[in-house]
Structure formats: structure tokens, C-alpha cells
Amino acid sequence: MVQQPTSHVLVHDFGGNGPVIHLAHANGFPPGTYRPLVDTLIHHYHVISLPSRPLWPGSQPVNVPDWHPLADDLIQGLDSLGLHHIIGIGHSLGGVLTLWAAVSRPDLFCAMVLIDPVILPPARLWVWRLLRFLRLHHQQPLIRGTLHRRRIWPSRQACYQSYRTKPLFAAWPDVSLWAYVEAATREREDGQVELVYPPEWEAHIFATIPTDVWQAVPYLSAPALVIRGERSHTFRAESQARMARLLPAARFVVVPGAGHLVPMERPVETAAVIGDFLGALNQDEKSEGGRNYG
Fold first, then answer.
1. Which of 42, 166, 177, 249 is the most core-located residue (most Cβ within 10 A)?
2. Domains in the chain: how many in total?
């Protein structure tokens, strides 16, 4: 459920007991989309998510020239809630925001999990720089397609049935697709349902993919798990290999058969990998008399 504390910071509170986990969601996928993943974690952790700016009422893409203000939002939100030394999980866009927040403010996170973060190989980033220089980046099919996507359906059932036939969701189990439909739509006064995540925002975030993210990677000091979908075209094998060289202490796991949307395609497997990582950290810390991760 979504709560609005006195700090005026929107919080999606999944519930649970134990150490706090903050889940930073991907572009276009509100926090509730991750319910099937989180359902396992809340047995041992208290999981929350701060919805990113595209989900704030009245927010406008024109005020966000790149992704860095979204990372600042995450920092300010955690500070407003008085949360420090927590566990950070970030998927896609959320992985980059969590990385930047942790590098800027090492006190915020005691451990983190980056799930298929948007960290492109250097060669692809040069292409993005060239497209921006030529002002052609907005012509990319992904961006144009996002702006033309359907926004309204007669019901959530109709929305679900429409998405069930699309290639993007073909590998999603029903529980994940229903979680997305319920999180991504709201009822209108006329009884229909509409998207809560504006396509204009989604397209803007795609268009402003960061080309400077590699600069932050070597400065990540918190214990880290990096999860990649085997079939991901976003966080590719070459990016994983380069990241492993820059972060030799980090743990890297590839989920077989999964793509970029690995936490939705394989929620149970992804939660198990996260649980194993945090459990191992907890054992290490207990043997040294340190922090309890759950």
C-alpha cells in the first residue's frame, strides 16, 4: 500500500519485519509491480519503495534534464524518513539511482543489490553521445513506441488480456503480470482504467540514459550483489565483466533464461539469490560481531 508520512514523502510500504530494504523500481514499472519478488523477502525484511518522480502528482519531465535529480530525490527521501545503513535494491533505472546514491552518501546503505542496472557497454554509450549531439536520440524506436503506447482500457481484465499477448510480457508468470496491471493502472471516473506512469515521462527517461555512469562504479564501497538476466540486452555480458574488474569484491549472478526484466520474469529465483547474498553477509558479520542483515 502507499502511505504519505508527515514528511510529505510518498512511500510504498510492502510490510514485513526486520532490517529495512529500499526497492528502487525500473522506468515504467511502479513499486507494486515487484510484489511477487517482495513476497518472499518480507518474511525477514521490512521492504519499502519511494516512487520515483514520474509517479509524483504534477511532476514534469522538463524539470529533469538527466537522471541525477532522481538520485537526489532518493537521497532526500531516505533522509526525510530518517533511514540510514539500510539495504538497497535497485532494478534497471533504480539500479543506477541506488548506485549513485550509495556513492554520494555511503552512510545510506550497508549493502546493495543491483538488478540488471542500465549500465551500457562503453561502445554503446558513444553511440548515444553521438545521437544526442546530432539531436537524433528522440527518434529511437523505443522512445517513439513508448509515446504511442495505449493508455486506457475498459477494465484491468482487458488490460491484462491485452498485455498477455505482447512479446514483452511473454516470459512473465501470471502473478507478475497481474501485479503490474494492478500497480500500473488506476480507475477513472468513467469506469475505465488508465496508466499511472505517464508515457511522456517513460520516454524522457529512455531518452536521457546516462553516459557517465561508469565514473561512479569504482567508488561503490558497500557490499554488492549484481544480478543480470542471461538474455538481457541492457546490462550485457561485457558490462558485467567490466564491472567485475572494477568491483572485485562484488558478487555477480546470472539468472538463466531471463531478460532485462528478470525480477518480473523470475521473481522467486531472484528473491532466492538476494536472500542467499544477504544471508551470507549476515553470517560473515555475525562471525565478526557486526551488523545483522536479517
1. 177
2. 1
